[in-house]
Amino acid sequence: MKLEPNSPAGERSARVLVVDDQRNMRTTLSLLLRGAGYTVDEASDGTSGAELGSQEAYDVVLTDLRLGEPDGMAVLRAVKEAQPRSEVIVMTAYGTIESAVDAMRLGAFDYLQKPFSEQELLLKVQKAIESRRLRGQVDAFAQDFRERYGFENIVGRSLAMRNLLSRVVRIAPTDVTVLITGESGTGKELIARAVHASSRRADKPFIPINCAAISETLLESELFGHARGAFTGASTARKGLLEEAEGGTFFFDEIAETTMPFQAKLLRAIQEGEVRRIGDNRPIQVDVRVIAATNVDLAQAVEEKRFREDLYYRLNVARFRLPPLRERPEDIPLLVDFFLNKYGQKMGVKARLADDVIDRLMTYQFQGNVRELENMVEQAVALASGGVITLDDILPESKGLREAPSPRTLAGIVDEAERRAVLDALKSASGSRERAAELLGISPTTLWRKMTRLGVVYDPKPS
User: Fold this and answer.
1) Is the dihedral of CA 401, 407, 412, 414 positive or negative?
2) Between 432 and 336, whose confidence is greater?
3) Which of 295, 332, 296, 331 is nearest to 161 (CA)?
4) H or E segment at 49?
5) Which residue has the higher pLDDT, 75 or 462?
6) Contact 434, 446 (CB under 8 A)
7) CB under 8 Å, gap of 24 or more: what pairs does 209-213 form?
8) What is the per-residue pLDDT across 212-268, written as a single tens digit (0 to 9) for each?
9) In the structure, how many helices (H) and strands (E) does the chain have?
């Protein structure tokens, strides 16, 4: 079996800690892993294993469960407490599978049942390292956005998302009105909150309202407030939400669902920077930035006389279009990992995907976009048995996932073609990246970068 380097030239080789009290086993494992290009440290008992694994940020800790006292479970607990991003693979003897399952519930990435093959060992270590690196990309993206712009829940590495966030960063510091368009479930409110968090108004209120969920009469009262005695039951004067948002940002979600008379009042409030409470003729000055969102084509709504043309142009100063998830499938692995972390922590479980799930999700037509994916992952984490999410968990009502239509953008078409070409080359080369790179006419480093960008993970099955 020819061993491939675990990372392209010039990159840090992954670090693995082998913990086993049997010298022959420990030495054999270390030689195999070093031969595959990994940097390997050894520990001969649970005490030194727990100490090394806690002090050093290993990519993978490979530990036997039966080590005496402290045992492999103690090593697992110590590593996950001190270095939560380190992945732990436990080794267990035949007949003790229950212990391996318990270890995965405590946060182990996977287990190896003795005796295991060289190929099985290297495959599981490679998968653990890829999982850690993917998690690192999610963490780095979130940390960078949090530190620079005060927002962390937008995840994506696709060209479309990078361009969108680049525009958010440029537009946010200004006070221009923003219109966000996109299908339901694409995350329009997240972008609105990102604009607010990146603006000079970040320390002031961000107030959202769903225009489709409130009747016109109530919506007007909620936004503009009312004077005392304006209507039955108005025993005291009350500020409207636009006044409450003074100095901050107001987000009108589903703006296309408002009526033409209401749109006229809203236009005046935006243009004049003032509101009039119901039953009061006295104008009140307000300093509020307006962001609106819709899943409707407002230009068409204007033509059909369902939306005021003057309000449309007043809102459409800076426009952000959120691409549907099917146009950025390369973001799916990152999003899945993000939601696995989110709901795994919330439910107190450690869940991972079975080998075939990501590839199938990449071809799924997400009608509900990111919201649908999030709901699928949340449900799957709750249903997963033994910490492994299968296709039945992620989509229990159907074995066959719907094939997505061809990507709409040129970038999406190119990415999908590259993804298929890379997978075909890896399959022809039996998983050898060096040989696959030769077949594609590129360097191994370029192939590795393309696999990372496109979210390609190829797992050759043991024969």
Assistant:
1) positive
2) 336
3) 331
4) helix 46-55
5) 75
6) no
7) 209/241, 209/250, 209/251, 209/252, 209/253, 210/253, 210/254, 211/252, 211/253, 211/254, 211/255, 211/257, 211/258, 212/253, 212/254, 212/257, 213/254
8) 888 877 888 888 887 776 666 666 778 889 989 999 999 999 999 999 999 998 998
9) 19, 16
CATH fold label, 406-463: Arc Repressor Mutant, subunit A (1.10.10)
Query: What does the pLDDT read at residue 407?
Result: 44
Number of residues in the chain: 463
Whole-prediction pTM value?
Answer: 0.57
Q: What is the pLDDT of residues 372-382, one digit of tens each?
A: 999 999 988 88
Q: What is the mean pLDDT of the chain?
A: 82
Residue extent(s) of CATH 3.40.50.300 domains in the chain = 159-322
Cis before 115? omega within 30 = yes
CATH code, 326-394: 1.10.8.60
Which amino acid is residue 304, in one-letter code?
Answer: E
With respect to CATH, is domain 1-154 assigned 3.40.50.2300?
yes
Q: What stretches of 183-286 adopt beta strand conformation (E)?
A: 206-210, 225-226, 238-239, 249-253, 274-276, 283-285
Q: Give CATH 1.10.10.60 domain extents, the chain.
A: 406-463
Instruction: Kindly calculate the radius of gyration of the chain based on its CA atoms and give it in whole angstroms.
Output: 27
Distance between CA atoms of 435 and 429, rounded to whole angstroms?
6
Q: Which of helix, strand or coil describes residue 388?
A: strand
Half-sphere exposure of 248 (CA within 13 A, CB side): 19
How would CATH label the architecture of 159-322? 3-Layer(aba) Sandwich (3.40)
State in Å, rounded, how far the first CA of the chain is from the last one.
12
**What does the pLDDT look like over 125-183, one tens digit per residue?**
998 888 787 766 555 555 555 445 444 556 777 778 878 888 888 899 999 999 999 99
Structure tokens, 246: 């003074």
Single-letter amino acid code for the residue at 182: G
